[in-house]
Design a protein that fits this description.
- The protein is α+β, with helices and mostly antiparallel strands.
- It has one domain: outer membrane lipoprotein receptor (LolB), chain A (Clam).
- The chain is built from four helices and twelve strands; from the N terminus they run αααβββββαβββββββ.
């Protein structure tokens, strides 16, 4: 009788354990081989529930853009990001005047000059910058919702940091690969374009900070990929965020 009872308990325990495994909260996102890397990053930056519930991110930003000659142009921006809607609104003041803009993940750009006049190249650069900030601000959550999905996973080293490279499938203009730190799990780098050295792509370096339960990027830096190394020294954008709130 005792043997029968013990056997029943053992079966029940196995069933419970199997049930727990089946209830992986990340299973619905179909992350494949990237599951552990992406889950570690989400867990390290506030947790899945926090990212699933985020709606709007508001922030002040000091944004410096560099033209082809390396000359900087600095803007002070007020940003409002609709995370699920894939939309960023910005109001910016700079030496030439002030402007407002709306940029979406679909590539739509609407810029209104209220005072002063931006050149056509400057307007194009602003549209690109806001598109990058919109994407980079939501970090690893881009792989949870939207058009991006993870692909092949491989180990790598970037600027002396051990990372896990996760190929990004589905939205090449913004990202071709995410690089997650082995130590700490956070998303550290994102590449766009061709991420082989010397092929003209870009690499973003993210520095995160806690905010409203989420660890959002405090600094977003974008560089041109180097001729021989992934993290080059030609700056394209630097954005420092403050007064960040999450709704």
């Amino acid at each position: 009788m005792n043997a029968v009872r013990l056997s029943s308990v053992a079966v029940l325990c196995v069933a419970v354990l199997a049930g727990c495994g089946a209830r992986d909260p990340y299973a619905k996102y179909k992350l494949g081989a990237a599951r552990d890397a992406v889950a570690a990053a989400i867990d390290a930056t506030g947790g899945l529930k926090a990212w699933e519930n985020v709606g709007t991110i508001r922030a002040d930003a000091l944004v410096t853009l560099y033209d082809a000659s390396g000359s900087p142009r600095t803007n002070r921006m007020k940003l409002v990001v609709d995370v699920r809607g894939g939309r960023i609104e910005a109001v910016a003041a700079e030496a030439a005047g002030w402007w407002s803009a709306v940029v979406t993940r679909r590539g739509e750009i609407a810029l209104t000059q209220h005072e002063g006049q931006l050149s056509a190249p400057a307007k194009q650069q602003v549209g690109w910058a806001l598109s990058m900030i919109l994407h980079r601000l939501t970090g690893p959550a881009n792989l949870l919702y939207g058009v991006e999905k993870p692909g092949a996973v491989s180990p790598a080293v970037v600027a002396g940091e051990r990372v896990t490279r996760v190929q990004v499938i589905g939205y090449a203009p913004d990202a071709v690969a995410d690089y997650f730190l082995i130590d700490g799990g956070t998303l550290r780098y994102v590449t766009a374009g061709d991420d082989r050295p010397g092929r003209g792509g870009t690499i973003t370096r993210l520095t995160c900070r806690p905010s409203g339960g989420l660890a959002l990027p405090e600094k977003i830096e974008i560089f041109k990929i180097g001729q021989h190394v992934l993290l080059g020294d030609e700056s394209l954008l630097e954005a420092t965020l403050s007064a960040v709130t999450v709704e």
